[in-house]
Amino acid sequence: MAEAAREPWSAAYPGEADVARDFDLARLPADFYRDPYPVYAALRRHDPVHRFSGGLFLTRYADIERVYKDAKTFSSDKTLEFGAKYGPSPLYQHHTTSLVFNDPPLHTRVRRIIAGALTPRAIASMEAGVVELVDRLLDDAEAGGSADLIADFAAAIPVEVIGNLLGVPRAERDPLRDWSLAILGALEPVLTLEQMAAGNQAVTEFLAYLEGLVAERRRNPGDPDKDILTRLIQGEADGERLTAAELLQNCIFILNAGHETTTNLIGNGLQLLIEWPEARARLIREPDLARTAVEEILRYESSNQLGNRIATAEFEMGGETFPAGTRLTLCIGAGNRDPDQFPDPDRFDIARAPNRHLAFASGIHQCVGMNVARLEGRVALGRFLARFPDYAPAGAPIRSHRVRFRGFMSIPVQLSP
Question: How does pLDDT run across 184-209, given as a tens digit for each residue?
Fold first, then answer.
């Protein structure tokens, strides 16, 4: 299997303890982007509460879960951090207003309104549309005989699903993915001037588009049980409606959150089934394993690898006491490979159970759209394998050169022998 053939980090570094001691997100070697997991393992063993230039870097499942579940001590508010990172800019305005980087009461109000449109019944009603979309994409791919699993399949699915939820006319959806990639790319720990400029431009263009879309929806409301934009416009929580800025910025958040993680889930999954042929053969034999396979993909190659919090009070961790104001980076990718939580964690096991991974976070910030992503992943993987069980590489896959979000820019394949 491809996994077993990877060169160990010890080939480049004298030992695990040195790797752990010297680790810093601001100074990563190129090979880290291909395979960060040996580094995460070194940190878990030698320095699980690691001090680096950005504060603390946590790699143990138990520590990460504790932080997620204690929202009072460990805040998601990024006003100070993003003020220093972005300055007074469209990126700052967006990321400090969106659901994920806020604490109650704003977080509570926005989440309650969005969650009301994503009930189990509403998600179940989406399945037929997702099946139709996936089959249409597979028909297009079959006509060509080859495909790029990202551009032609994985990235197209969430853009369509979220576009439907927000009621974005299909003819106006082309810029959505590029806007999302630019905005989320600006969340990387180390930014170039080009990334900053692209992110700010994307926020500006997306807001301008949404202003027109919201104005149209106010004139012609949709069904609030299915149309999230109408629900956000009309919705009320704790006696308050969203402000105009909160409404627009959280529309951007819904697309970004739903697009990036699901694209990576589907792309990572199809690549893993190339690298682990026994798992692919089993999933073809036992298609009912699609649900647990999706959970294992999320654990093994977490779409979102990093989370962040800031301490609001003094706290103890790993036998040390840290002051209020300490910044914490939660390494989801490391926690999801922690052997204290997952037996044989570096084995890709599509039937793994239990599988309490952290890919969707935990606590009050657990991903509000996680069951939409699960639906998309299950339908996409199952129907792709049923149509193209013998798909094979047609060139080298290209990883996105990012730390926070783990996925591919391109995976070329031949669909049949």
Answer: 999 999 899 999 999 999 999 999 99
